[in-house]
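ingest -> validate -> predict -> emit
validate: passed (alphabet ok, no gaps, 232 aa)
predict: started
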Amino acid sequence: MTRDEPDYTQLMTRRIRRVLLVCNNYDSYTLEEDGRIESRIAQDYADLNLSNPPEFHRVETTAEALELMNCGETYDLVITMYNVGKVDVFDFSVQMKRLTPDTPIVLLATFSREIYNRVQDHASSAIDYFFCWNNSTDLIVTIIKMLEDKMNADKDILESGVRAILLIEDSVRYYSTYLPMLYKLVLQQNSESIRDALNEKQQILRKRSRPKILMATCYDEALELYERYRNN
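emit:
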């Protein structure tokens, strides 16, 4: 390892290992129409030269999800569909944050003006991200990688010099389309560079040091990210 080369063991140290998926039977059927979601995600990871796909645990209602958390279960990410029981997703997110404040909560829903307005009306809820569901597991892989990039950004970018790409977009429909395309492009380019590596150590380094993709949905957030990581 050269003096300027980062230690690959210190890159991408924080990962999403366990995902709680809250979706009713209909949404579950849509998700698993072409095979179990775990298998599809694992295949997506393999196709993109990614390792260690997360474990998924599915429940049908928000009440079941809250019961799991009250029983001591822990997850790195909660993904919930829109119509998932008597406890609506907005109340659910608030209760979930009380139980596990640091766990990101992502709402997946088919885009409609009614749902969008409700999300806008509940802007103070504890939902961290809202994505437009497009019936593709590409989006779920993207959400996982985006959150991992965010979790590792300070250490990898500021301390190890990893590069960053900043996407600024306030349209749910647009960033739900842009992000999967952007990740697929970056990961495919990264796979090409890995093939040219001289040895296994360099392969791992190149895999872990791919550019981080950071997303901002408003001007203030974009400016904050730019000022923080402007040199990378």
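The beta strands are 18-22, 55-59, 77-80, 105-109, 129-132, 164-168, 212-216.
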